[in-house]
């Protein structure tokens, strides 16, 4: 079982605001997921390479040839705020 | 610095000058109006899939090969997770435990000719963030920042060194020569000002003789080598002050302010370094065909280190000559062409000295000027044959810069051919005769007055006298020796 502080830490990293009762639920659900990992760990996996991808594909590459970009109006259409032809965001400095 | 030694490692981000971005077909650009090179992929719209730019892989491999890195037979991409408005996916696609280029070594040459060996930890591929600008005072009361996604998704290679550097000056020597090497490879513009090359330094100090590392700080993103060197020196001094006062250096990111010379701490938010890397499921592994890697290795251009060694060992140049002449691929090509035709040492002197000095006023480089390498070689030959004096040769050069004529033609047109000795002797005799005071000074052992005679001779001959010959004649006439 992972502790409450770990849940809060992970929530902060993911920019999630959790109510205390939600923290409790998350604690249980995350612990449940980690138990699955423990089940895998209990097996003898010496010599088994880690699976990073489920597709047996390599080298899917693209030629360095330009393709049309979006018109700016379209790119900015979903922006919350448009300032100086750019995406306006809360102050960052 | 007594008692402590600095330990420095650097991380260099290099924007690859490909035509398109790392994972989409948007064109790269610098200085275009904001947000005209974006698409659903680099804006991180839901459901899009990135595809790796083959040219970016090729250039990363070239960098790895030039740095003597082990090339990973199969490397993968990871997601580096953090929230910031310049990163629309809330993760940067980067590489983590299996970078495309592993351990290598770079050899730089210090100005005194000694070798500076720097271990390369890794070089990996990733994507650049977008450009975030704080509006600040630009708009009254603005409490906003704005994001331009043109740069977002530009291919980057991050090169990380071992903590092998022991002074700020060595670190900058390494960085300058690494930059030259990258320019020779033609993989990046490497402009510090425009941000296509950025360097961070990890700095710590430890008592001399100690093998443990002290706590390091990270000096961020300076836009010139000069400021970076000053910043490292300031940070080294700051850490030394802390340790001498019995304090402890805290691990943090610091910033150097060139205007004041102060080091300030960039408050790094708690947890900001918990990136939770995990393999990027949207991108399959890159496993470069060994035949491709061999071909790239075989086709690497000759790099500055090898050129410098050849210039010093085979052509008799000084280490400093070699450093200056390998500044850019164009300059090397220019010099090599001249050196194949005339004395290399003399060609080096004229190209790095007088030619560049005269062209500086016009703001041009030798290879852009009307003076060809063959012209330089011909001028060097005229000097060696005694046809022109050094001062006259400088005038010939000025003439060639203006007209693009052969040096012999300029000599002819301007009447710059050296006077033969009997004509010169007559001129010297007249000068000595009409300046008895100076002649007496020379007899009294005041050698400085020789400059007066040389100056007079040059004036009266219009620069056609050889200063050495003038001195010899004056001595014979006045001192009888």
What is the secondary structure topology, with strand pairs?
The complex is a heterodimer of chains A (93) and B (481).
Chain A lengths: L3 H10 L6 H22 L19 E2 L9 H5 L5 E2 L2 E5 L3
Antiparallel strand pairs in A: 2-3
Chain B lengths: L3 E12 L36 E2 H13 L11 E4 L9 E4 L9 E6 L5 E13 L3 E4 L9 E5 L6 E7 L6 H18 L11 E11 L9 E6 L2 H20 L8 E5 L4 E5 L11 E2 L10 H9 L5 H10 L5 H7 L3 H11 L4 H19 L10 H12 L5 H14 L3 H8 L6 H14 L1 H8 L6 H12 L5 H13 L2
Parallel strand pairs in B: 11-12
Antiparallel strand pairs in B: 1-9, 1-10, 3-4, 3-14, 5-6, 6-9, 7-8, 10-11, 12-13
Helix pairs in contact in B: 2-3, 5-6, 7-8, 7-9, 8-10, 9-10, 10-11, 12-14, 12-15, 14-15
Describe the structure.
The complex is a heterodimer of chains A (93) and B (481). By secondary structure, chain A is mainly α. Chain A has a domain at 1-43: Histone, subunit A (Orthogonal Bundle), CATH 1.10.20. Chain A has helices spanning 4-13, 20-41, 72-76; strands at residues 61-62, 82-83, 86-90. In chain A, a hairpin with a 2-residue loop joins strand 2 and strand 3 (86-90). The longest helix of chain B is centred in the middle third of the chain and has 20 residues, at 225-244. In chain B, helix 8 crosses helix 10 (390-403). Chain B contains 15 helices and 14 strands. Chain A binds chain B through residues 9, 12-13, 15, 52-53, 55, 57-70, 72, 75-76, 81, 83-93, and chain B through 18-20, 24-27, 33-40, 43, 51-57, 74, 76, 81, 83-85, 132-136, 143-149, 271, 274, 276, 279, 281, 283-288. Strand 1 (61-62) of chain A pairs parallel with strand 2 (52-53) of chain B.
């Amino acid at each position: 079982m992972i502790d409450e502080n770990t849940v809060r830490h992970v929530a902060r990293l993911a920019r999630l605001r959790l109510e205390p009762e939600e923290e409790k639920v998350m604690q249980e659900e995350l612990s449940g997921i980690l138990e699955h990992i423990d089940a895998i760990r209990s097996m003898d996996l010496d010599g088994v390479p880690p699976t990073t991808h489920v597709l047996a594909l390599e080298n899917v590459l693209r030629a360095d040839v330009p393709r049309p970009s979006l018109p700016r109006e379209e790119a900015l259409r979903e922006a919350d705020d448009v300032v100086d032809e750019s995406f306006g965001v809360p102050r960052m400095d | 610095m007594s008692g402590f030694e600095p330990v420095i490692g650097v991380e260099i981000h290099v924007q690859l000058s490909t035509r398109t971005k790392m994972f989409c077909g948007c064109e790269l650009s610098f200085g275009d109006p904001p947000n005209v090179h974006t698409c659903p992929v680099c804006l991180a719209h839901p459901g899009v899939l990135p595809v790796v730019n083959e040219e970016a892989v090729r250039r990363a491999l070239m960098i790895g090969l030039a740095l003597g890195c082990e090339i990973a037979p199969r490397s993968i991409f990871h997601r580096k997770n953090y929230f910031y408005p310049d990163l629309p996916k809330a993760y940067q696609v980067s590489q983590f435990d299996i970078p495309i280029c592993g351990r290598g070594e770079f050899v730089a040459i210090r100005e005194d000719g000694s070798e500076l060996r720097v271990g390369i930890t890794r070089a990996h591929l990733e994507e650049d963030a977008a450009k975030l600008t704080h509006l600040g005072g630009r708009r009254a009361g603005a409490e906003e920042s704005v994001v331009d996604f043109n740069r977002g998704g530009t291919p980057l290679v991050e090169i990380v060194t071992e903590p092998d550097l022991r002074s700020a000056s060595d670190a900058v020597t390494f960085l300058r020569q690494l930059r030259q090497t990258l320019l020779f490879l033609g993989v990046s513009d490497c402009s510090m000002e425009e941000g296509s090359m950025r360097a961070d330094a990890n700095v710590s100090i430890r008592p001399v003789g100690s093998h443990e590392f002290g706590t390091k700080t990270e000096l961020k993103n300076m836009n010139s080598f000069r400021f970076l060197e000053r910043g490292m020196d300031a940070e080294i001094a700051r850490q030394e002050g802390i340790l001498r006062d019995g304090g402890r250096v805290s691990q943090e990111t610091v910033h150097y302010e060139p205007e004041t010379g102060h080091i300030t701490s960039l408050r790094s938010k708690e947890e900001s370094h918990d990136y939770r890397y995990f393999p990027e499921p949207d991108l399959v592994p890159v496993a470069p065909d060994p035949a491709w890697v061999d071909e790239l290795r075989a086709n690497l251009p000759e790099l500055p280190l090898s050129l410098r060694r050849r210039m010093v060992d085979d052509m008799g140049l000084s280490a400093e000559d070699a450093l200056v002449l390998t500044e850019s691929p164009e300059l090397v090509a220019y010099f090599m062409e001249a050196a194949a035709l005339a004395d290399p040492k003399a060609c080096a002197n004229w190209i790095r000295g007088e030619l560049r000095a005269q062209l500086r006023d016009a703001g041009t480089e030798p290879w852009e000027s009307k003076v060809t390498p063959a012209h330089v070689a011909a001028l060097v030959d005229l000097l060696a044959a005694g046809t022109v004096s050094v001062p006259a040769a400088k005038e010939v050069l000025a003439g060639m810069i203006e007209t693009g004529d052969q040096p012999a033609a300029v000599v002819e047109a301007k009447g710059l051919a050296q006077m033969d000795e009997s004509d010169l002797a007559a001129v010297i005799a007249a000068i000595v005769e009409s300046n008895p005071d100076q002649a007496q000074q020379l007899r009294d052992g005041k050698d400085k007055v020789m400059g007066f005679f040389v100056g007079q001779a040059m004036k009266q001959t219009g620069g056609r006298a050889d200063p050495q010959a003038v001195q010899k004649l004056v001595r014979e006439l006045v001192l009888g020796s």
